[in-house]
């Protein structure tokens, strides 16, 4: 019974807040139960609906329990020996016939640091930098702008110091009320109760909007802008700050560079015309500017509403401009803070599962950095950045012949999903490591059954750079394997016993990771303990930094980089054929492609199917009644969903989600990319809507 074994302390497998939970295992290995963890450092026992339901998928009847090999279009069970043999033979064949860059490797933000570290090492030992993870889809542009202009691609501050010290929260294109429920309820809402003001900039009214309407005052604001007009809105804010001399001159002089460029960019900027473009009254934006600029400490939160645009890098740069111009960086309660979506999306990038950087964000094309890593690894790393995941999918069947996917589901997560599925069929070989038969696994040649989050140990890094340990209960299915074990074995078979893939356990891998990842160097499993540590942690004994840039920025000059930016409309705008703007976002009760959350009865019951939000005026125009089934189409495909008529969305805009396989919003989204960060434009496409005839 459960009294016999102690529950294990681990981390919630869903969002990037990093809540600690406990897992209890009864006598039967499949009897896995959730228990709160009262002293957990981030959440002190509190939990949202997803975290509380997380154990429901561990022993789900859909679990993959044995390796599968596809023969004549059908999967059959295979032994591990046979499956490994197939994977290694195909990887060797592809390299021989086409060179190593004909393979692509996808790490996963749902798997741990050690596992992603080993996967990117596998790709590089194989001879390619074509390795990426789904951070590309959520915050690639944020990471790009933050690294270039401040130094590190992560939250500048931590949830705890923000709660303590921020007077104003500027939340643009993020929805913590829905996506980071415990950060919202435990930290931000607490600050609001103590008097902090919230300014939300979002085309959609949502749980964040409602969660802050908790007091009688009218100090909070929601600026409901047209999708894709974030730059003009922030330019109005910046120009208002300049006109009123609300800048921090001392900070600009001593800590920044590029301020003149901002002045030049805004010189002829027409605030009135821009406000019209944004669809927000000018005086509201000016008032919001005043609240932010006059706060003692103001913090910016940025989310995928900012990053998932073809101008994603510039969107985030403009937030950085605002923070730097007003001196809101380098102190508790300030900064530019991306709220990260998955429990290890920060860590997956930290450990180098990206085509352009090695562990610790060391550029692959920097000779010195590469050589220092090569010294530990004992083999040469290719010196040219590889392809990103969307680029790999675009090349599938052309220059890319094979794909190694650990725990990702690109058929649903990438934009223009129908094309992704078509292209996967053009590959010569695909291997998928996962816990369920995902929409992507259906296209695989070999499927390797992995264990779930609850059954294994390792570390994950949450949204405020806190590295924490996960601990596992026993395996539920004998013939499944941990991701780490699988990647190690593939590595051993490809490169021999001395090829750099012989590890005893996750801690053994972490010890090597430290050697090549300076921001993690000071961490050991012992030092992480139950509290975890924030990076950067350069030396053993370092406490890690809850907020960054107190004295200088991690840029070459040590200064924060300001750079004025101009409006760039989304690549696809409404026209006669597709007259509406379609935007997409996620729900609290579901998680990305829904592989786990749709299988969790508690979460499924909350939201069993996809839907679309449509404004009452548009509903009338298209003859749509609340609850009708409607067909939404874009240039790329169509889906049928239930209509929800609501003033939460602006007229001319419709809003849906990517979570549901039967009708995923990503069938409609546009796969154009931000040129620098290669993130797709999920947040704006042109669409039309009609009432379904067959409904
Ligand atoms: Fe899990 Fe995030 Fe909910 Fe915390 S807030 S319980 S980490 S999903």
Automatic annotation (TrEMBL):
The entry's keywords: 4Fe-4S, Iron, Iron-sulfur, Metal-binding, Oxidoreductase
GO molecular function term, any single one: 4 iron, 4 sulfur cluster binding
Pfam family, one: Molydop_binding
One GO term describing the cellular component: membrane
Domain of life: Archaea
Any one GO BP annotation for this protein: formate metabolic process
Sequence ranges assigned to domain 4Fe-4S Mo/W bis-MGD-type in this UniProt record: 5-62
Alphabetical list of SMART domains matching this protein: Molybdop_Fe4S4
Database matches in NCBIfam families: Fdh-alpha
Family per record: Belongs to the prokaryotic molybdopterin-containing oxidoreductase family.
Protein name: Formate dehydrogenase major subunit
Gene source species: Halopenitus malekzadehii
């Amino acid at each position: 019974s459960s009294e016999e074994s102690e529950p294990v302390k681990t981390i919630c497998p869903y969002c990037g807040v990093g809540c600690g939970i406990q897992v209890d295992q009864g006598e039967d290995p499949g009897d896995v139960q959730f228990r709160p963890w009262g002293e957990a450092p981030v959440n002190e026992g509190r939990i949202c609906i997803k975290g509380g339901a997380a154990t429901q998928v561990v022993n789900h009847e859909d679990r993959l329990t044995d390796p599968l090999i596809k023969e004549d279009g059908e999967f059959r069970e295979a032994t591990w020996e046979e499956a490994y043999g197939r994977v290694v033979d195909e990887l060797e064949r592809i390299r021989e016939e086409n060179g190593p860059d004909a393979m692509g490797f996808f790490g996963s933000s749902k798997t741990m640091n050690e596992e992603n570290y080993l996967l990117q090492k596998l790709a590089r030992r194989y001879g390619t930098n074509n390795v990426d993870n789904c951070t590309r889809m959520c915050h690639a542009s944020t990471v790009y702008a933050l690294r270039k202009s401040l130094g590190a691609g992560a939250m500048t501050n931590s949830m705890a110091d923000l709660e303590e010290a921020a007077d104003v929260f500027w939340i643009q294109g993020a929805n913590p009320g829905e996506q980071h429920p415990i950060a919202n309820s435990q930290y931000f809402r607490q600050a609001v109760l103590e008097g902090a003001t919230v300014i939300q900039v979002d085309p959609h009214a949502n749980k964040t909007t409602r969660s802050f309407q908790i007091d009688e005052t009218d100090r909070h604001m929601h600026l409901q802008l047209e999708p894709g007009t974030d730059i003009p809105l922030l330019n109005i804010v910046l120009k208002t700050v300049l006109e009123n001399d609300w800048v921090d001159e001392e900070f600009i002089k001593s800590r920044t560079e590029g301020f003149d460029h901002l002045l030049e960019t805004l010189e002829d900027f027409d605030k009135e015309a821009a406000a019209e473009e944004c669809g927000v009254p000018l005086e509201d934006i000016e008032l919001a500017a005043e609240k932010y600029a006059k706060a003692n400490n103001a913090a910016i939160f940025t989310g995928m509403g900012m990053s998932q645009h073809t101008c994603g890098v510039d969107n985030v740069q403009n937030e950085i401009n605002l923070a730097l111009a007003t001196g809101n960086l380098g102190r508790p309660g300030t900064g530019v803070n991306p709220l990260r979506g998955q429990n290890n999306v920060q860590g997956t990038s930290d450990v180098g599962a990206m085509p352009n950087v090695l562990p610790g964000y060391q550029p692959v094309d920097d000779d010195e950095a590469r050589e220092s890593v090569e010294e530990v690894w004992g083999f040469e790393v290719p010196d040219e950045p590889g392809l990103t995941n969307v680029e790999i999918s675009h090349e599938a069947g052309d220059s890319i012949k094979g794909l190694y996917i650990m725990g990702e589901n690109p058929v649903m997560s990438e934009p223009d999903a129908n094309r992704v599925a078509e292209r996967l069929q053009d590959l010569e070989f695909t291997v998928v490591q996962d816990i369920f038969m995902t929409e992507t696994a259906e296209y695989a040649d070999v499927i390797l059954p992995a264990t779930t989050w609850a059954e294994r140990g390792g570390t994950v890094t949450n949204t405020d750079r806190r590295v924490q340990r996960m601990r596992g209960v026993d395996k539920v299915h004998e013939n499944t394997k941990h991701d780490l074990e699988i990647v190690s074995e593939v590595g051993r078979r490809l490169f021999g016993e001395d090829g750099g893939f012989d590890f005893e356990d996750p801690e053994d891998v972490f010890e090597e990771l430290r050697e090549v990842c300076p921001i993690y160097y000071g961490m050991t499993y012992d030092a992480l303990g139950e509290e975890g540590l924030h990076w950067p942690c350069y030396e053993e004994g370092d406490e890690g930094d809850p907020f960054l840039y107190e004295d200088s920025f991690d840029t070459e000059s040590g200064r924060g980089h300001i750079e004025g930016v101009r409006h760039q409309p989304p690549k696809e705008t409404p026209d006669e054929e597709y007259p509406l703007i379609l935007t997409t976002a996620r729900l609290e009760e579901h998680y990305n492609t829904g592989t786990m959350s749709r299988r969790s009865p508690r979460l499924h019951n909350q939201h069993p199917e996809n839907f679309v939000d449509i404004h009452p005026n548009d509903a009338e125009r298209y003859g749509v009644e609340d609850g009708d089934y409607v067909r939404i189409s874009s240039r790329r495909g169509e889906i049928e969903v239930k209509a929800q008529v609501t003033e939460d969305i602006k007229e001319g805009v419709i809003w849906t989600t990517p979570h549901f396989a039967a009708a995923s919003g990503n069938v409609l989204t546009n796969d154009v990319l931000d040129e620098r960060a290669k993130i797709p434009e999920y947040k704006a496409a042109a669409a039309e809507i009609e009432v379904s005839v067959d409904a």
